[in-house]
Write a structure and sequence with these properties.
Structural class: alpha+beta
CATH class of one domain: Alpha Beta
Protein name: tRNA(His) guanylyltransferase
Strand order of the largest sheet: 4-1-3-2-5-6
Radius of gyration: 21 Å
Shape: globular
CATH topology of one domain: Alpha-Beta Plaits
CATH architecture of one domain: 2-Layer Sandwich
GO biological process, one term: tRNA modification
Number of strands: 6
Order of helices and strands: EHHEEHEHHHHEHEH
Catalytic activity: a 5'-end ribonucleotide-tRNA(His) + GTP + ATP + H2O = a 5'-end phospho-guanosine-ribonucleotide-tRNA(His) + AMP + 2 diphosphate + H(+)
Oligomer: single chain
Bound molecules: adenosine-5'-triphosphate, magnesium ion
Keywords: GTP-binding, Magnesium, Metal-binding, Nucleotide-binding, Nucleotidyltransferase, Transferase, tRNA processing
Largest sheet: 6 strands, antiparallel
GO molecular function: GTP binding; magnesium ion binding; tRNA guanylyltransferase activity
Length: about 280
């Protein structure tokens, strides 16, 4: 590019570099989806098609960015996890600007979400001003333990919200209560109380609700065989990941495997060790 007397304005751009050799999580969240879900008549508390659309868009993001090793989604949010060896936007030189990762994920996800909308909601075409958009943020986590705690945090959140929403909407839709009355009655209740309301009053056993609603959605790549009977833990839980453990050619090989691998859509517990022990390649 030719130099000009205007070029000095470039120096106003501040760096926002992410630490190298760390897990990066980009979490996106739908903007104003409470209103958007009303407008397009999402089923309460859980619209299956809306979740399937979120998951389908996230699978496309995984396919486009092989540096992503796992993703977790619930409601209108998705967390995308970049491996510490991620090379995207020249992270090796310590120059991954957070905003580049975040804006790429957000816009790629939004593009697919809108592109696929009519497949999932054929009878409700998207019309301005109700167009879906997403915000996003990047956070770094220094070791496997903290990354797993992050994933657990999101899944616990899914469980707590889903139990509340399921009870609330059952009281309103089946019990004929007003929103305020149901809200009032649920104030200060614990999980056991909600389970009891569902079971005693409505004959609903919360355990029989769909896994996708109770556990959310985890996406990962299937490029190694699962270990049938996990005994030993492969995850090096406490020590930070050291990039130099893998040679450049090893990393290239893994990247190639990731690119070609099938992306699995699952609704399982990711809090306990079992999920990770059965699939040691996800965090390695
Ligand atoms: P913000 O812009 O601050 O994120 P928001 O309205 O999107 O505001 P959230 O806390 O993100 O608020 O909550 C998302 C809301 O979208 C849920 O409370 C729910 O009402 C609705 N929603 C999202 N996904 C679904 C779904 N699959 N089925 C039914 N409702 C959904
Ligand atoms: P990066 O992902 O790094 O931004 P890039 O390929 O998008 O890579 P840019 O420097 O952003 O590179 O340049 C955008 C390129 O897109 C231009 O060089 C040009 O080839 C093409 N392009 C963009 N807009 C137009 C247009 N209106 N007509 C023709 N070509 C265009
Ligand atoms: Mg938000
Ligand atoms: Mg939202
Ligand atoms: Mg949300
Ligand atoms: Mg460009």
């Amino acid at each position: 590019m030719a130099n000009s007397r205007f070029e000095y304005v470039k120096s106003f751009e501040q760096p926002d570099v992410l630490l190298p050799n760390t897990w990066i999580v980009v979490r996106i969240d739908g903007r104003g989806f409470h209103k958007l879900s009303d407008h397009y008549a999402f089923k309460k508390p859980n619209d299956r098609r809306a979740l399937d659309l979120m998951n389908a868009a996230a699978v496309e993001v995984m396919k486009e960015l092989p540096d992503l090793c796992i993703a977790y989604g619930v409601s209108d949010e998705f967390s995308f996890v970049f491996h510490p060896n991620c090379q995207l936007f020249e992270r090796r030189n310590g120059t991954t600007p957070s905003r580049k990762l975040v804006t790429t994920i957000v816009s790629t996800f939004t593009a697919h979400y809108i592109y696929k909308w009519s497949e999932y909601f054929p009878e409700r075409p998207l019309l301005p001003p109700y167009l879906p958009s997403f915000d996003g943020r990047a956070v770094i986590y220094p070791n496997n333990r903290i990354l797993r705690d992050y994933m657990s945090w999101r899944q616990v959140d899914c469980h707590i919200n889903n139990l509340y929403n399921t009870t609330f909407w059952t009281m309103v839709l089946q019990g004929g209560m007003s929103n305020t009355d149901a809200e009032q009655e649920l104030k200060g209740t614990v999980s056991a109380d909600k389970n009891e309301i569902l079971f005693k009053r409505f004959g609903i056993n919360y355990n029989n609700e769909l896994e996708i609603y109770k556990k959310g959605t985890v996406l990962y790549r299937q490029y190694e065989l699962e270990e049938p009977n996990p005994t030993k833990s492969h995850a090096d839980e406490e020590t930070p990941v050291v990039e130099s453990k893998q040679s450049r050619s090893q990393q290239d090989k893994i990247r190639k495997l990731r690119r070609k691998a099938q992306v699995v859509v699952d609704h399982v517990d990711i809090i306990k060790d079992e999920f990770w022990e059965k699939r040691p390649w996800i965090l390695s």
